[in-house]
UniProtKB/TrEMBL annotation:
Localization of this protein: Cell membrane
Keyword Cell cycle on entry: no
Name of this protein: DedA family protein
VTT domain span: 38-168
Membrane topology: Multi-pass membrane protein
Organism: Streptomyces tricolor
Secretion signal, residue range per the UniProt entry: none
Key words, A-Z: Cell membrane, Membrane, Transmembrane, Transmembrane helix
InterPro entries associated with the record: DedA-like, VTT_dom
Entry's transmembrane regions: 12-38, 62-85, 156-174, 180-198
Length: 215
């Protein structure tokens, strides 16, 4: 029996290949608490790297399969997340004991209110943690189904294909890059967290202002 750690991109890719990409991205794109613990960016980019071959080594994964599975997982996961939100999403969020989930839900709600449905659904795809809760929140807030489907599909395809192709391009340009997946995953984690820094700074400033005002 193969021991697979679903939170470890290299383990998932080695065991299941493109099918693992589909399943994990599906869960990460809308299954609320479960999706928070699964890789997204850190799975797609290395998968793209493994699609790039060299004169010494053939590709370990087929690019077309990874692209297709990534797109299907992202779009289908987003739709399921929306349905979860429409049918009890707020109650589920209210029962969670995870501060991370609650904060992400609040960010998702602010994003939808600030940018409008279309732009928020596309931007949110590129923000870790936020994208997992964004689709259930859209359902809970009553975003029209047709509007949601169109824009989450645009965002899901754009996000998934961009990351896979970026990994493929880099893997094809740098020899033996696939041999350094762990450091590469660490780098992707750092880069994927950058969009969260402004939000963290804003939240820290608000807490400081509340403390200074005595509330």
């Amino acid at each position: 029996m193969i021991a697979v750690n679903p939170m470890d991109s290299a383990s998932v890719l080695a065991a299941f290949g493109a099918l693992g990409v589909l399943v994990v991205i599906f869960a990460e794109s809308g299954l609320l608490v479960v999706g928070f613990f699964l890789p997204g960016d850190t799975l797609l980019f290395p998968a793209g790297v493994l699609c790039a071959g060299s004169a010494q080594q053939p590709p370990r994964l087929a690019l077309w399969q990874v692209l297709l599975c990534a797109a299907v997982g992202a779009v289908a996961g987003g739709q399921v997340g929306y349905l979860i939100g429409r049918h009890g999403g707020r109650a589920l969020l209210a029962r969670t004991s995870s501060d991370r989930v609650r904060r992400a839900a609040e960010r998702a709600e602010r994003l939808l209110a600030r940018y409008g449905y279309g732009k928020a659904l596309v931007i949110g795809r590129f923000v870790p943690l936020l994208r997992t809760v964004l689709h259930p929140m859209a359902g809970a807030l009553g975003v029209p189904a047709r509007t949601f489907t169109v824009w989450q599909t645009v965002g899901g395809v754009l996000w998934s294909q961009t990351l896979v192709l970026a990994g493929y391009t880099l893997g094809a340009s740098v020899p033996h890059l696939a041999d350094y997946l762990l450091p590469l995953v660490a780098l992707v984690i750092v880069l994927s967290l950058l969009p969260l820094l402004p939000e963290a700074h804003r939240a820290r400033r608000e807490r400081r202002e509340r403390r200074d005002s005595g509330h």
